[in-house]
Each structure stands twice: as structure tokens, then as C-alpha cells.
Write a structure and sequence with these properties.
The protein has 197 residues and is mostly helical. Helix content is 84%, strand content 0%. The two termini are 36 Å apart.
């Protein structure tokens, strides 16, 4: 009987303490899936856009099939496909985050992803908009070179105003939204990690 009491005491001593605070792990999973789905949808839209532009290029009126127009449409399609590939690659990196790991390792995976995301944003967005802007400029110039100068200037002003708005307002707004999700995930994981220490 004494052996049983010793075994019972040993059992009680070896019990691990469960963290008092219940962290919502499903919230982390949900944010991860939303982030991945956002990237995947964006990539699909870019692929559809690239295919659509190639289709337009193929069925263009023969009078409009000049080297600058075909070149600019090809560049726009290639830029769309490259951007889609980069976005799908980013979505794959999100998929590779292993939720079954320890909280500290899981946190480290998210922090590594965040570092990767910041590096990509630093060079990707400017290059994407510059290439797109140059290709659109050549395309529009070729289409509008026979119209009045003020009409051409108006078309360029509207197009580039939209691009600036998309880059400086919509793009920054989307980045803030993604950063808020990332901050939420990282904060939850830090909280979980602190409970296990």
C-alpha cells in the first residue's frame, strides 16, 4: 500500500500546470486562413487579368497591332503573371506554417513570415507599379497619338491619378489591414508562449 501512495505522490508532483488563461487558438487559425485566402484570390484575379489582356491582344484590330502596343500589352500580362506567382508563393509560405508546433516555434514561424513579407513589400510594390505605369504609358500613347493633345493629357492624368490613388491609398490601406491581422496573430502567440513559460 505504501508503494501505491508513493506512486500517487509522484504522479501529483509530475502533473504539468495548465495555463490559466484560455487562448483562442481558433482565432489564429482563422486569421491564417483569411490571410492565405486573400493572397490566393488576388493571385487568381491577376492571372485572369493577364489572360484577358493576352486575349485582347490576339483579337485586336490589325490596324492597332503595332510593335509598341503588342509589346506593352505583353509586358502588362507578364507583370500580372509574375505578381500572381509571387503572391501564390507568399500564400504557400503561409500554408507551411505548422500550427502543431510549440507556441515558441509557431511564433518564430510567423515572425519569419513577417520579415519575408516586409522584404517583399519593400521592392515589389514599387517595381510592380513602375513597370505597369511604363507599359500603360506606351500603350496609351500609341492609341491616342492621333487625338488632340488635351484629350491625351486628360487620359494620362486620369490613368496615373488612379494609379497613384491605388498605390498610395488603397495599397497602404490593405497593408495596414494585413499588418493588423499579423499583429493579432503574433500577439496571441506571444501570450500563449508566456503562459507556457
Amino acid at each position: 500500500m505504501e508503494e501505491f501512495k508513493e506512486l500517487e505522490n509522484l504522479w501529483k508532483q509530475s502533473e504539468t500546470k495548465v495555463p490559466a488563461k484560455n487562448t483562442n487558438i481558433s482565432k489564429i487559425k482563422n486569421n491564417r486562413m483569411k490571410l492565405k485566402n486573400t493572397y490566393t484570390r488576388g493571385a487568381i484575379l491577376l492571372i485572369i487579368t493577364g489572360i484577358y489582356i493576352l486575349g485582347l491582344m490576339i483579337f485586336l484590330d490589325s490596324k492597332l497591332k503595332t510593335v509598341p502596343i503588342i509589346s506593352s500589352m505583353s509586358i502588362i500580362s507578364v507583370v500580372c503573371f509574375l505578381q500572381a506567382y509571387l503572391i501564390l508563393f507568399t500564400a504557400k509560405k503561409i500554408s507551411q506554417i505548422d500550427e502543431t508546433q510549440t507556441p515558441s516555434f509557431h511564433l518564430q514561424q510567423w515572425q519569419n513570415f513577417r520579415t519575408f513579407q516586409k522584404k517583399i513589400r519593400h521592392w515589389n510594390m514599387p517595381i510592380y507599379y513602375i513597370l505597369l505605369g511604363i507599359a500603360l504609358g506606351v500603350y496609351m500613347y500609341e492609341l491616342l497619338k492621333t487625338v488632340d493633345l488635351w484629350k491625351m493629357a486628360l487620359a494620362f492624368a486620369i490613368t496615373y491619378a488612379w494609379m497613384f490613388f491605388a498605390y498610395f491609398y488603397l495599397g497602404k490601406k490593405e497593408i495596414k489591414k494585413q499588418d493588423a491581422k499579423m499583429d493579432g496573430i503574433i500577439a496571441e502567440l506571444k501570450s500563449l508562449e508566456n503562459q507556457f513559460q
